[in-house]
Write a structure and sequence with these properties.
CATH superfamily of the domain at 3-8 and 41-109 and 171-246: P-loop containing nucleotide triphosphate hydrolases
Distance between the termini: 31 Å
Order of helices and strands: EHEEHEHEHHHEHEHEEHEEEHEH
Helix content: 25-40%
Structural class: alpha/beta
Radius of gyration: 25 Å
CATH class of the domain at 3-8 and 41-109 and 171-246: Alpha Beta
CATH topology of the domain at 3-8 and 41-109 and 171-246: Rossmann fold
Largest sheet: 6 strands, mixed
Strand content: 25-35%
Shape: globular
Number of helices: 11
Length: 326
């Protein structure tokens, strides 16, 4: 296997000041503060192969951001080891910067008073790339990522979708082997989100860039990633392919039925009534306990106008994994 990221028994703890209640407590906290240790990341291990698009997800406070900051050299780990492109981020952060790119959906790296073109030139200079090479790259990016309409418009006048597109392109100027994307589609409308996802897939295909993605948007995860790592309370609770994730956790089906007449049903083992209102019926069927055909026997087929059988949304599956449920 050709691993570009190797993480072994990684841990990170923080000391935080304990706030005491009341005036006396506050006074004591100032004179002699007390601290407690929080384990942000607790003994995690994983590898990422070259060319993968991997989702690294979890609820707020799970340890995602702390892990990414350690992978990129912003934070130092307390225990364990990290290798990114064969480089230890804690020892050679500057060298690592030439091998990776980062895009944070909520943080701007572009100079807003400059145009995308000028920003790209600026980033080329930062990475000591010859001017003629930068010009060639910019022309290539303009064509591939369709930037011509706004390449000479100040960044402050761009839409959010256009800015994010330029943020991603700016991170590619030095041809990073790995791109860390943190919430790249946050705040975007559905059409622009799809455009950004297309851009990410194309980038992975055209440049063989390994993508390390964090996102709360299930659409990003489902449409981009073939592998998912879920972290919660500082520990990895799942590391599996998207295919296996769906196979093992999609044991529930949703049946939505439109009826000619009203039907009154009760919950049975393996069947939960989610909605029974008027002529519309919605059931959740646990196929480990009962089959779809058994569930449908409860409904008179002559009274059915329309029926739809679907999987439980991936968002619900991931939420249940966060909670430790199956």
């Amino acid at each position: 296997m050709n691993n570009v990221i190797e993480v072994k028994n990684l841990s990170k703890t923080f000391k935080v000041k304990v706030k005491e209640k009341g005036f006396i407590g506050s006074l004591k906290s100032i004179i002699k503060p007390k601290y407690k240790t929080i384990k942000a990341v607790n003994n995690i291990s994983f590898n990422v192969e070259k060319g993968e698009i991997i989702a690294f997800i979890g609820p707020n406070g799970a340890g995602k951001s702390t892990t990414i900051k350690m992978l990129t050299g912003i934070l130092y780990n307390n225990k364990g080891s990290i290798s990114v492109m064969g480089i230890d981020p804690t020892k050679k952060r500057k060298k690592l910067a030439y091998e990776i790119g980062t895009v944070f959906g909520q943080k701007e790296q572009l100079w807003t008073h400059l145009t995308p073109y000028d920003n790209f030139k600026f980033f080329g200079a930062i990475y000591d790339i010859p001017e003629y090479v930068v010009e060639k790259k910019i022309k290539e990016f303009i064509e591939i990522f369709e930037l011509s309409e706004f390449i000479n418009t100040p960044v402050r006048n761009l839409s959010l979708g256009q800015r994010i597109r330029c943020e991603i392109v700016a991170s590619l100027i030095h041809e990073p082997k790995i791109l860390f994307l943190d919430e790249p589609t946050i705040g975007l409308d559905p059409v622009v989100k799809e455009n950004i996802r297309t851009l990410i897939k194309r980038m992975n295909k055209e440049y063989k860039t390994t993508i390390f993605l964090t996102s709360h948007d299930v659409g990003d995860i489902e449409k981009l990633c073939k592998r998912v790592i879920i972290i919660n309370k500082g520990e990895i609770v799942l590391d599996d392919s998207m295919e296996n994730l769906k196979y093992h956790y999609l044991n529930k089906k949703i049946i939505e039925v439109k009826m000619k007449e009203k039907v009154n049903l009760d919950d049975k083992d393996g069947i939960t009534i989610l909605k029974d209102k008027g002529y519309n019926l919605k059931l959740e069927v646990d196929i480990k306990k009962t089959s779809i055909s058994e569930a449908l026997k409860l409904i008179d087929s002559d009274k059915i106008i329309d029926i739809n059988i679907s999987n439980v949304p991936l968002e619900s599956i991931i939420t249940n994994i966060y909670k430790g449920e199956k």
